[in-house]
Amino acid sequence: MKKIVYYILIFIVIIFIVPTILTKKQRNITTEVQETPKTQEEKHEVDLSSDRKIKLLHASTNEVEEVDLEQYICNVVSSEMPASYEIEALKAQAIVARTYTLYKMKHPKHENADICDSSTCCQAWLSKEDRLSKWEETEREKNWAKIEKCVADTKGKIITYNNEPINAFFHSNSGGTTETPKEVWGGENLPYLQVVQTAGEDGYRQYSSEVSFTFDELINKLKEKYGDISIDFSKNDDIKTMDYTQSGRVKTIKFGNHELSGVETRTLLGLKSTNFEFYKNDNKITFFVKGYGHGVGMSQTGADSMAKDGSTFEDIIHHFYSNVEIKNL
Ligand SMILES: [Zn+2]
């Protein structure tokens, strides 16, 4: 009799409780927000003078604040690029951030604001107070003054293609070669965002990283999206890169009974880029990753590396964005 009760209990667990757990596991994964370049969207006429104010949405409080454009660029540059980087790299970052801002004003993503302060949605922005508090006390004034000067020295400068501000994507480290937007977000490529190579990026800590998973950990991560995934780890080709993008990043990779894109794999496994290789040993798989970020547009470490070799901000911008002009607002 006891046995029957025991079997009934097991039956209940299998029928009701296990599916509930599995369904919860298959929740939507929050992917790193990587906006899609929208080349076809409606354009808004905006005042492009450099003295204008912009409406900045604070993502954490949902409040909109009106800030001076050039002051806003100082806060963005100080949040997006280390103050220790070369002056010409910081100037390039200022122009890229200003261009990106104007592009966003013309192609708004938020209803009541021009841009938000989240790095995963628009671009990072910290208040001066918050930014200073993150630097060593002795460095604060010096760092802020350096960035303010780089922004002031490039005041009003933006990057244009066909007389329009470009969608000036940037990222941390390209691993030596940048990527086209189509490979990251789908849609159409943009003529000024080509695959380009930059020397010296391997000198930065963002250039290489590695992550190891036990076979169980790997399966569990992939199950967050593919509940029925099954991999035969004893077979050498049950995990296999099927296809690479023009820049050498993983385009498609097979995991057992599923084929995933490199971008999807990066998100699910939390890799720093889609430029990776992997090795299996014992019951572990290790991913060796090159670069940090989506790889489109200007690489910040690449910009710094070029500046160290004597490049100006103009050289840097023309290297990462093809056939563009640098214009004054
Ligand atoms: Zn945003």
Write the layout of secondary structure elements.
Elements: H1 2-25, E1 53-58, E2 63-68, H2 69-80, H3 87-106, E3 115-116, H4 128-133, H5 140-153, E4 157-161, E5 164-165, E6 170-171, H6 181-185, E7 208-214, H7 215-223, E8 239-244, E9 250-255, E10 258-261, H8 262-269, E11 276-281, E12 284-290, E13 298-299, H9 300-308, H10 313-320, E14 325-328
Parallel strand pairs: 1-3, 6-13
Antiparallel strand pairs: 1-2, 4-5, 4-14, 7-12, 8-9, 9-10, 11-12
Helix pairs in contact: 2-3, 2-5, 3-5, 3-9, 3-10
The structure holds zinc ion (ZN).
Question: Could you describe the 3D structure shown?
Answer:
The chain is an alpha+beta fold and 329 residues long. It has two domains: 53-168 and 321-328, no CATH class; 169-296, no CATH class. Helices cover 35% and strands 20% of the residues. The chain is built from ten helices and 14 strands. The chain has helices spanning 2-25, 69-80, 87-106, 128-133, 140-153, 181-185, 215-223, 262-269, 300-308, 313-320, and strands at 53-58, 63-68, 115-116, 157-161, 164-165, 170-171, 208-214, 239-244, 250-255, 258-261, 276-281, 284-290, 298-299, 325-328. The strands form five sheets. Strands 2-1-3 form a three-stranded mixed β-sheet. The chain has a three-stranded antiparallel β-sheet with strand order 5-4-14. Helix 2 (69-80) crosses helix 3 (87-106) and helix 2 crosses helix 5 (140-153). The structure holds zinc ion. Zinc ion is lined by residues 109-110, 116, 118, 121-122.
